[in-house]
Specification:
The complex is a heterodimer of chains A (131) and B (144).
Chain A lengths: L10 H14 L2 H13 L2 E2 H7 L4 H13 L3 E5 L5 E5 L2 H14 L3 H16 L11
Antiparallel strand pairs in A: 1-3, 2-3
Helix pairs in contact in A: 1-5, 3-4
Chain B lengths: L5 E8 L3 H9 L1 H7 L3 E4 L6 E6 L4 E11 L3 E7 L10 E11 L2 E9 L6 H28 L1
Antiparallel strand pairs in B: 1-7, 2-3, 3-4, 4-5, 5-6, 6-7
Classes of the chains: A mainly alpha (131), B alpha+beta (144).
């Protein structure tokens, strides 16, 4: 039995994706997210030590990332706030990208070629060359 | 910005449905135009697998609808999500006779799906999480 028809995405889902794309549009924010993904939770000071950006600028970007739900503030050592990457909004954006990346035009052209080719002569094992 | 839930394409091919059906539902057919290698257990609930060598990518599919030679449907993972993510899209091919050929429609749907729990995690959880985390932060700072 086929799955039930899926509900369409609500505007809040689209808002999540939009915030993710806006967050990723800035190279410093991408660097912050990459640093958190690669090395785990860090404070603004830790990040300022690793990236060529002032602590003030890092703090500003972290605030925006927190608002987008991409990082979460949590208590760290010595009363300092530590930021942890949150992947859930990324997955929402990823689904949008998945729809854009799913290519049906190429395979359907290949299917037509395959049917034409196999109709012309005896069965051939030649593979369709994808471009 | 639209959030596409489904992709739909219709093509006319100059071959009868029976022939198109074989290209869609046999390992030999699928490997000839879709992937580089294919395996399929053609029955509802049956497993199928497609492999693309260049990309080093394998898709595990589950056959959902088999109504020869008119409807073939399967689910497969959403590209880009982790391998253990349970979310899948549903692909359905519909074959209709069109003169001597076939009108073939493919619909892939479910890109915008967000099960209730994932939605809560992605969105609602954020607001709650913040309140909770900040509460904990305050408690932590008060205690320190």
């Amino acid at each position: 039995m086929p799955p039930d028809p899926r509900p369409r995405a609500g505007p809040d889902v689209e808002a999540v994706a939009e915030q993710v794309f806006a967050a990723l549009a800035d190279p410093t924010r991408r660097a912050i997210l990459a640093a958190l993904a690669a090395r785990g939770p860090a404070t603004a000071t830790d990040l300022a030590g690793r990236l060529p950006v002032t602590r003030q600028a890092i703090a500003k970007h972290l605030a925006l990332l927190a608002e987008a739900g991409l990082v979460r503030a949590e208590p760290g050592e010595r009363r300092r706030v530590r930021y942890r990457l949150r992947s859930a909004p990324m997955r929402v954006a990823q689904q949008f990208l998945a729809a854009l990346a799913r290519d049906w035009d190429g395979p359907l052209d290949a299917l037509k070629d395959h049917l034409d080719r196999s109709a012309r002569g005896p069965a051939t094992t030649t593979r369709h060359e994808t471009t | 910005m639209g959030f596409p839930d489904r992709i739909e394409r219709t093509v006319e091919v100059a071959h009868p449905p029976k022939k198109v059906w074989a290209a869609l539902t046999t390992a030999e057919g699928l490997a000839a135009w879709f992937g580089d290698e294919a395996a399929i257990d053609l029955r509802p609930g049956g497993a199928a697998r497609m492999r693309w060598n260049e990309e080093g990518f394998t898709a595990e599919m589950r056959v959902e609808r088999v109504e020869e030679p008119a409807v073939f449907g399967f689910t497969w993972p959403i590209y880009g999500l982790p391998a253990d993510d349970p979310r899948r899209t549903y692909v359905e091919f519909t074959l209709e006779p069109a003169g001597a050929g076939t009108r073939l429609t493919v619909v892939e749907s479910g890109f915008a799906q967000l099960p209730e729990d994932a939605h809560r995690t992605a969105y609602g959880g954020n607001t709650e999480g913040w309140a909770k985390e900040l509460g904990e932060l305050v408690a932590y700072l008060d205690a320190a």
